[in-house]
Amino acid sequence: MPFLSSFHSSMGRRLEVKRQSIVWPCGILLLPLHSHLKRKQQMGDQITDIAYELERLYTLSGKLFIRQLELIMRYKGFQCVENETAIFHTGMEQDSDFPRLLDAARKAVAHGYSVYILPNPRGTRTADFIFERKGILGLYDLKTVHGKGSVESQLIGSIGQTNRVLLNMTTDYNARLLSSEIKAYFETNKQAVEVLIFKGRKSISVSRWQVNAPSFNRYFRKKYEK
Prior knowledge:
Blueprint: H1 2-11, E1 22-23, E2 29-30, H2 35-42, H3 50-56, H4 62-73, E3 79-80, E4 87-89, H5 98-110, E5 114-117, E6 129-133, E7 136-145, H6 151-157, E8 164-169, H7 175-188, E9 194-199, E10 202-207, H8 208-211, H9 216-225
Parallel strand pairs: 4-5, 7-8, 8-9
Antiparallel strand pairs: 1-2, 3-4, 5-6, 6-7, 9-10
């Protein structure tokens, strides 16, 4: 299955790059263009089909994947969310899902990220966000946790969209159960890279090497419950 193989190849890698960032009007924070993208802009080659560019993410890997994230961030359809300086969208305020996305985006900004809320054109399964902080990029799928005992199914449901998942906790969730469900997700999805958790004012990042550590459950519960 070539598509699945290329998806695993691209999404299994760490989605990050460090470069000096620049600020554009409206507070937009972007990374410097690679030379090949500069040439494209000089030729007036702008994105006209965001759906196509989002779909291309699943066929790229390594540096090409990062460059595609950068290109998507420069899509001229992005605009600042009203009264926000670091959250950008493509005119989605009327979408029923927008309040949920905006709530998580505001928490991300509080932790130092610039947030690009991705559209879902033509019903394409896409991730929800591109996060940028200090030149590091990440592609995340959002799962808002309301009930108890629902995290594992939500994590499994993210497979095929991205290998970084954001859990926005809006309920009092048992730490022992949550740690076991996160561990089960990493065991099921061999391409998983990170589970990022927003709980109140806290941000907890869980990676594969942490989950594989013998002391993970104790370590996680200490961070989650304090």
